[in-house]
């Protein structure tokens, strides 16, 4: 599991790569928490590099969304691969977490 990060004008874009499942979900969670600063105005998770996510990975995203929501920090995911998008739709996560097709769309929507 790799996490790349870029901050731009108050937006923290975190880009994980690989698979997220039960074997690395704790590492995924720790990496995301470490990558987010208290002064981040918006957080976008660019999931374009994730080719598989299990229920353990979805749990991590739910915990992150709840944490950021409690801090009133806008949060979104973008660039989902077809298989990950299907998991989001089947599980209803697209109703819980804002999902955008591209990073530019996510940045534009969260900036408003």
Commentary on this structure:
With 112 residues, the protein is α/β, with parallel strands linked by helices. The protein has a single domain, classed as STAS domain (Transcription Regulator spoIIAA, 2-Layer Sandwich). It contains 4 helices and 6 strands; from the N terminus they run ββαββαβαβα. Helix 1 links the parallel strand 2 and strand 3.
For the sheet with most strands, the description reads:
6 strands, mixed
Low-confidence stretches: none
**Beta-strand content estimate:** 25-35%
Top CATH class: Alpha Beta
> In CATH, what is the homologous superfamily?
STAS domain
Radius of gyration: 13 Å
CATH-assigned fold name = Transcription Regulator spoIIAA
Which descriptor suits the 3D outline?
Answer: globular
Helix-residue proportion: 40-55%
- Supply the number of structural domains: 1
Encode the helix/strand succession as letters.
EEHEEHEHEH
Produce a short descriptive summary.
The chain is an alpha/beta fold and about 110 residues long. It is built from four helices and six strands, in the order ββαββαβαβα. The mean pLDDT is about 95.
Which tags fit this structure?
alpha/beta; six-stranded mixed sheet; about 110 residues; Transcription Regulator spoIIAA; about 30% strand; 6 strands; globular; single chain; about 40% helix
């Amino acid at each position: 599991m790799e996490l790349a990060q870029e901050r731009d004008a108050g937006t923290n874009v975190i880009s994980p790569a690989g698979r997220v499942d039960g074997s690395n979900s704790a590492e995924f969670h720790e990496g995301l928490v470490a990558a987010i600063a208290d002064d981040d105005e918006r957080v976008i998770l660019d999931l374009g590099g994730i080719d598989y996510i299990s229920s353990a990975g979805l749990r991590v995203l739910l915990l992150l969304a709840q944490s950021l929501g409690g801090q009133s920090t806008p949060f979104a995911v973008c660039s989902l691969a077809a298989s990950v998008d299907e998991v989001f739709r089947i599980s209803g996560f697209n109703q819980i977490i804002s999902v955008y097709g591209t990073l530019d769309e996510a940045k534009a929507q969260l900036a408003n």
